[in-house]
Amino acid sequence: MQQEKYEKSGGRKYFLFLIYFMVLLLVSFCWFSIRGNRSYPDISILCSPQIRTVHIVNISQLDLLPDLPLERMMYEQPKALKPLRTDVLMVTPWLAPIIWDSSFNIDILNAQFHQKNVRIGLTVFAIKKYTVFLQTFVETAEKFFMVGHKVNYYIFTDRPNDMPNITLAEGRQLVVLKVLSYKRWQEVSMRRMEMIRDYSKERFIHEVDYLVCVDVDMKFSDEVGVEILSDVFGTLHPGYNGGPRERFTYERRKASTAYIPPDEGDFYYAGGYFGGTVEEVYKLTNFCHTAMMTDKGNNIEAVWHDESYLNKYFLYHKPTKILSQEYLWVEGWGVPEFLKKRRFVALQKNHNAIRNKRDLDRMRNSRMRNKFQKY
Ligand code: 48C
Questions:
Q1: CATH number of the domain enclosing 218
Q2: Which of 3, 85, 202, 311 is the most buried (most CB within 10 A)?
């Protein structure tokens, strides 16, 4: 009898436990399905030893997100039905803004980026004789590039001793990175992708938020500010304004990883000016370098080197922002009506003096002439 009673009560306890467990399971399932899979761990215990109490509160990590309101600012009211420019394309079909003068308010943008304490890395390569361009490059960058923000100049060179001594404004520093040189100027140009990729992983990801990667035989000639910053951006090449895509000098040989068929292509992007967050620039440069190495293994080199691979990347990984030709023009060229500013210009250089003679002859016979067709 006693045994029987004992067994009955044990069985009843087990049954109750099972019910309790099933209910708990059901409740938690419903709770998760309502809240979806966004799990925000809650901080639930706050202790205050002074008054020896424990507060049970429910704080989600969403409550910890920083609030960054702008200060009061005075500026002209934007007009929803009055476009800022009608002479140029202001936005791409995938809704990436194209940056033209008078299409943005730099004061608002500066306030936003200052709040985020943004840090910008400017990468430039000065290999072999190209170190002659460093003085002008850095001096004009001091005047016009991201003035008032934190800037790291990353100077890749095989000749660190050629680095001129230039006093930088506050919040800006210059880092010289000693790297290998290559015999052919095309190789020097193309290997930039590999080196930017590797340094992004090793160093840049820890030091800056954005990278701007440009040619060195250039000078800044007007403001280049945070309006250019976006996840990943490219720049319209000055030699290609509105011409038909089949006339773009993309790589057209199917054997190359940079191949683009005549019926595809959005814009022709300049090889010497791209950038974005370190993460996105890492992906871009990794793609371009890998594609180049594949071609190299197949004894093929895209017609315009790193620029060809960059255009291939941007065809299938659309840039989130595009810089107009204001951000890349050529010194000595005429100034068409649509070009309100020339912010960064390619210096007229004597290729003979600066590149290997042999390559110069080869280049003269190439399509270089119609590469810089008149706009
Ligand atoms: O630093 C060098 N040294 C070279 O001998 C050849 C190229 N370069 C880098 O590659 C420079 O940063 C150049 O600006 C860039 C290739 N771009 C040009 O030469 C013209 N701006 C197209």
A1: 3.90.550.10
A2: 311
Q: Is residue 229 within a helix (H) or strand (E), and if so which, with residue range?
A: none
Exposure string (b/e) for 293-310, b if CB count within 10 Å is 16 or more? eebeeeebbbbbbbbbbb
Q: What is the CA(194)–ligand 1 centre distance, in A?
A: 15
pTM: 0.83
Asked which of 40, 64, 88 is the last residue of a domain, the reply is: 64
Q: Residues enclosing ligand 1, CB less than 6 A? A: 125-128, 130, 185, 188-189, 215-217, 272, 346
Name the residue range of residue 19's domain. 2-64
Count of C-beta atoms within a 10 Å radius of residue 53 = 9
Q: Are residues 33 and 109 in the same domain?
A: no
Q: Which of 46, 64, 82 is the last residue of a domain?
A: 64
Positions marked active-site: 307
Q: Same structural domain for residues 50 and 104?
A: no
The pLDDT tens digits for 136-153 are 999 999 999 999 999 999
Let me know whether 160 and 48 are in one domain: no
| Mean pLDDT (whole number) for 194-213 | 98
What are the tens digits of pLDDT across the range 324-370? 999 999 999 999 999 999 999 999 987 667 776 555 455 455 444 44
Predicted local distance difference test score (pLDDT) of residue 373: 42
As given in the structure block, the two tokens for residue 308 are: 């060809």
| Closest C-alpha to ligand 1, atom 2 | 127
Looking at the structure, tell me whether residues 59 and 104 fall in a common domain. Answer: no
Choice between 199 and 242, residue whose per-residue pLDDT is larger:
199
